[in-house]
Each structure stands twice: as C-alpha cells, then as structure tokens.
Amino acid sequence: MSNPLALIGRGATYVALSLAAFVSVFPFFWMVIGSTNTNADLIRGKATPGDALWRNIEVFFTSADLPRVVFNSFFIAGVGTVLTLLVSSLAGYGFEVFRSRTRERVFAVMLLMLSVPFAALMIPLFILMANLKLMNSYQAIILPSVASIFIIFYFRQATKAFPHELRDAARIDGLKEWQIFLFVYMPVMRSTYAAATIIVFMTHWNNYLWPLIVLQTNDMKTLPLVVATLSQGYTPDFAVVMVGSIFATLPTLIIFFLLQRRFVEGMLGAVK
C-alpha cells in the first residue's frame, strides 16, 4: 500500500509543475491568440481566436523592409554565433589545457569582469566604435561580443571532462595543437558546442540595447528593433506587435528544438 504522505507530496509536485508550466506557456499562448485579433479586441482582453491574423501580418510586412530586417538579424546572429563559439572555445580550451603561473589569476580577473554591467561599458564602446569608423555597421554589433567571458568559462568547465588521453595520443600521432583542437576536441565536445550555440544565438538574436545605440539607419535595423518600434507612438497596434513578436521568437524556438537533445547533454557536461 502506498504511503499517503508520499502520494500527497507527489500530487503537490504535479500541481506545482503544472502551475509553472502554465505560467511559462501562457505568454506565448496570449501572443498567438492576440495576433489573430484586432487591436481593440486585444485591449478588451479577448482570449479567443479572431479573424484578423492576415490583416495583422499584412500591416507588419508593410511597416518595414522585412526581408532586409530579417537578413540583418540572421547575419548578425549567425556570424556572431560562429565567431563567438570559435574564439571563446579556443580560449576555454587554452585556459584548461595550457598551464602557467598566472593562468588562474587572469581567469579570476575575467570572471570578476562579469560583475560589470553593460551600462557601464556602453559609452567607452561607443567612443571606440566611433573612433574606428564602425558606427552603423555589422562589425559594431558583432565584435564586442566575440569574446564572451561566460562562454569561455562554460567551455573551460566542459573541457575538464575532456579525456586528455585523446590529446596525448593525437600528439604521439604527430598532430599539431590546432589539428588536435579541430579534429579531436571539437568533435568530442559537440554537445557542449550545441548547448553554447543555443545560448549564443539567442543572445545575438535578442540583442536590443547595443544595436539601438550603434545602428542609426532603417536599412541596418534588426527584428527586435523593428518590433520595439511598432509599440511606440500614441496609438500602437498591439495585435501587429504580437505578430512581430511571433516572427522574432520562431528562429530561437526552431534552433532550440533542433538542438534540444544536444543542449541537455551539453548542460550536463556529456562528452562523447
């Protein structure tokens, strides 16, 4: 016979998880429902599907040069993700594999820099980009985030589980260090790369504050900036904002579901 206290505890756990799931899913549900209604219905709190979806999509597509905006977002997120993964994984690999007297001190200083808010870095970064003549360019968005301290830390921690016997065997076979990194380390750590890809892509895709500062023309704007613009003014059409939010959310959802299994393995530190 089952323990009544255990049953009560299990029931309470399921109730708590159900509430947490509802709280997590409801904003997306409201976003989808809102995109099918008119602005007036949305303001009144209508929670059932409407018939204004295609009208809202049409307004959203005519509100900006959407193909150009989507290209900007994918280019910045794609190139930024690749460069961040390459540079940060190299740094994380180097911090763990190569030993020196000052290694831990340098790494500690880097971790300390995580406590510095981005707001404190905006003005120096702005001045730097202006002096380099990089304002209103892709480079101004991508370059400051290429060396991510958090991703370096993540790769260093993951590298602790990397079998160093493989590296020693590769050295015996005559491979140079860059060949070991490319042909041994990267394939073995693919789950870590998958998890980092999701984190970095979402960071680049959802980046708002820094692009708002350095991107000064409409042809360089990204999707988050366009969606934010739709909600400005005296009479914003929130139904159109919901459509824009769906378009801005879909790429990150697709990336996550494609790499979901690898993401879980990478967060757990799986090495294969």
UniProtKB/TrEMBL annotation:
Record-linked Pfam families: BPD_transp_1
This protein's name: Lactose ABC transporter permease
Organism placement in taxonomy: Bacteria, Pseudomonadati, Pseudomonadota, Alphaproteobacteria, Hyphomicrobiales
UniProt GO cellular component terms: plasma membrane
Membrane protein topology class: Multi-pass membrane protein
Keyword Hydrolase carried by entry: no
Organism domain of life: Bacteria
UniProt keyword annotations, A-Z: Cell membrane, Membrane, Transmembrane, Transmembrane helix, Transport
Family designation: Belongs to the binding-protein-dependent transport system permease family.
Subcellular locations according to the entry: Cell membrane
ABC transmembrane type-1 domain location: 70-259
Organism: Devosia elaeis
GO biological process, one term: transmembrane transport
Annotated TM spans: 12-33, 74-95, 107-132, 138-159, 180-202, 238-259
